[in-house]
Amino acid sequence: MHGNAVNVKQLMASQHRKHRGFRTERVVAQYLSTVWSGASVGRGSGKDVVNVPFDVEVKARASFQPLAYMKQIKARTSVSGELGFAVLRLNGQGEDVEDYACVIRMADLLPLLALKYGHIQNEPTDADIDHCPACGSWMIRKCLTCQPTTTHAEPAILVKRSITDGTIDQ
Predict the structure, then answer these.
(1) CA 156, CA 115: separation in Å to the nearest integer?
(2) Rounded distance, CA 81 to CA 24, Å?
(3) pTM above the 0.90 mark?
(4) What span, in angstroms and rounded, lies between the C-alpha atoms of 38 and 169?
């Protein structure tokens, strides 16, 4: 009888983790839908969130294996050419998606940083950091939130394409 009780307890814990993972996928998709209205959980497609212009892998596990997550994302994105990253719900976190961690390859992060901060040549001072008077976002010297065309995306996109098509060594 004792063995059966242990098996039932293990099964219940396993089911809890499984349902926590499914719920995490739903809250991440819901959060992304604030920008991409069609964002939803993907089943069987490989991507955990579909109808977004990137590849998201959602993890809600007790173990922390960032190398495995990066390999999984790279395997999919090397075929699709999409930007990929893993969203991690760590133990002890609730459903506040804004506090979840992300794992992204440095080669994928660099073009994003260039888009956001490419206009900054020197380390900003406190005087350079302010709230945008138009949208309220934090900005450094100029707002890239409400005026996204102030940074030219073409150079960053070319770097990303060069990395994925093999013309730049990784």
Answers:
(1) 6
(2) 25
(3) no
(4) 35
- Say if CB 165 and CB 124 are below 8 A apart: no
Sequence-separated (6 or more) residues with CB below 8 Å from residue 25: 41, 48, 49, 58
Supply the DSSP string of 97-153, one letter for each residue. Answer: GGG-EEE--HHHHHHHHHHHHTT--SPPPGGGEEE-TTT--EEESB-SSS-GGGS--
Is residue 156 predicted with pLDDT exceeding 60?
no
What is the model's pLDDT at position 142? 81
- Token pair for 4: 């059966």
Give every CB contact of residue 73 below 8 A, 6+ residues apart in sequence.
55, 57, 84, 85, 86, 103, 105
Assess whether pLDDT exceeds 60 at residue 6.
Answer: no
∠ CA(126), CA(106), CA(160), 5° rounding?
105
